[in-house]
Amino acid sequence: MSKPSIMYAGSDRFACQPLERMIEAGYVPDVVLTNPDRRSGRGRKLTPTPVKALSQQHAIPTWTPLSIKDENAFETFQSYNVDLFICVAYGKIIPTQWLETVDAFNIHPSLLPKWRGCSPIEHTLLFRDTVAGVSIIEMTAKIDAGNILFQKQSHIDKEDNTKTLGDRLFLEGSDLLIQTLQLWESNALPKPIDQDDSKVTFAPKISKQDATIDWNKAAEEIHAMVKAYYDWPVANTLINGEMLKIYLSDVRNCDIENSSPGQIIAIDDFGVWVTCRHGELCIREGLIPGKRRMPIQEIIKGRKDLFVVGEYFGAT
Fold first, then answer.
1. pLDDT class for 234, splitting at 50, 70, 90?
2. How far is residue 174's CA from residue 114's CA, in Å, rounded to a whole number?
3. Tell me: the pLDDT tens digits for 166-184?
4. CA 57/CA 48 separation, integer angstroms
5. Backbone angles phi, psi at 189, to 5 degrees
6. 184-211 as b/e, with b when 16 or more CB fall inside 10 Å?
7. d(C-alpha 194, C-alpha 197), whole Å
8. Nearest 5 degrees, angle CA 187-CA 191-CA 195?
9. Is 120 helix (H, G, I), strand (E, B) or coil?
10. Rounded to whole angstroms, how far apart are CA atoms 14 and 173?
């Protein structure tokens, strides 16, 4: 029996794991839909999405439209005449017109109906959830509101950030996707479960402005920001007018209220300790303009003028 014809829609690196797993399992897509190449890096070279790069490695045809909203895009979609449409971190809203013509499934990295939207992993970490998870849903016109076919709960490690938690969730989601494809082939999919609309929470798009640290927040809140914004846009603050991006942090004394949030109170082998409204944050890894990301002690060696006990972060 031949495998179903499939269009796979995905763009960012999280969408690579499911695609690789599909290829390994023999479900090679007939075509991959992904975002167009973008200019990036210091040389501003045109760079394909991670999914396009992977599909090209496997000689899978790619389709990279600027927009999928118009009639021309729909006609192109129809011309592929696929049995299944799989969407994973594609980055565009799929038109209802498409979804009415094909069975469509989506991997969503949350335990729906919690954290509908485009940044569920970030919000899982920002709100310091105790568990995470991944869902396979039927795609509908309403974003992330489709019936649930499969879900799997996952733990959250103390050191997890968006990258590590996302990698784990999409790996687990990849296995659920293969299970879905196999059961679809044999016409044995379980009866899907409606989402409980009374339990819906939303994970709206993250902006660069969201990553600016407010030292009047509690240390645990800022620590959660560092983990949530690890990949992008990266939690950041000013020190003597220069931006510092923070990639790794820790906390202590979270029950203590401080009268001078944002002040450097100690510098030791562990990092730079800063007071927050409640508790203290330790900056362990960072990046300053023109340099690579590195342990904070390495930054201090080259820029001792930036980090002085008694100085304040957020100062211009």
1. very high
2. 20
3. 999 999 999 999 999 999 9
4. 12
5. -65, 140
6. bbeeebeeeeebeeeeeeebeebeeebb
7. 9
8. 140
9. helix
10. 10
One-letter identity of residue 303: R
CA distance 268 to 253: 16
Q: Give tens-digit pLDDT for 142-151.
A: 999 999 999 9
pTM of the model: 0.94
Dist CA 227 CA 216 (whole Å): 18
- Please state which of the four CATH numbers 1.20.120.450, 3.30.1130.10, 3.40.50.170, 3.60.15.10 is assigned to the domain occupying 6-203: 3.40.50.170
pLDDT tens string 95-148 = 999 999 999 999 999 999 999 999 999 999 999 999 999 999 999 999 999 999
The secondary structure element, H or E, covering residue 73 is: helix 71-80
How far is Cα 2 from Cα 164, in angstroms, rounded to an integer?
Answer: 36
> Boundaries of CATH 3.40.50.170 in the chain?
6-203
Pairing of strands 242-257, 103-108: unpaired
Q: What angle do CA 241, 242, 248 make, to 5 degrees?
A: 130
Nearest to 112 by CA among 132, 92, 97: 132
Provide the CATH number for the domain formed by 208-302 in this structure. Answer: 3.10.25.10
